[in-house]
Design brief:
The chain has one helix and four strands; from the N terminus they run ββββα. With 48 residues, the chain is an alpha+beta fold. Bound molecules: zinc ion.
């Protein structure tokens, strides 16, 4: 079973259940994985 970790809050996401359950966002040319859109936005804000 493939486990993906949210890059903002480190929550574990079971990656092979549903690919739409995770939020991916390209930041600075690299794809990052998050548990939700909120984490993606927070991570992006923290970087800039
Ligand atoms: Zn998260």
């Amino acid at each position: 079973m493939k486990i993906i970790k949210c890059e903002h809050c480190s929550m574990e996401i079971p990656g092979d259940i549903c690919e739409f359950a995770v939020c991916t966002r390209a930041i600075a040319g690299k794809e990052h994985v998050f548990c939700c859109v909120k984490c993606a936005e927070r991570y992006e804000k923290r970087r800039s």
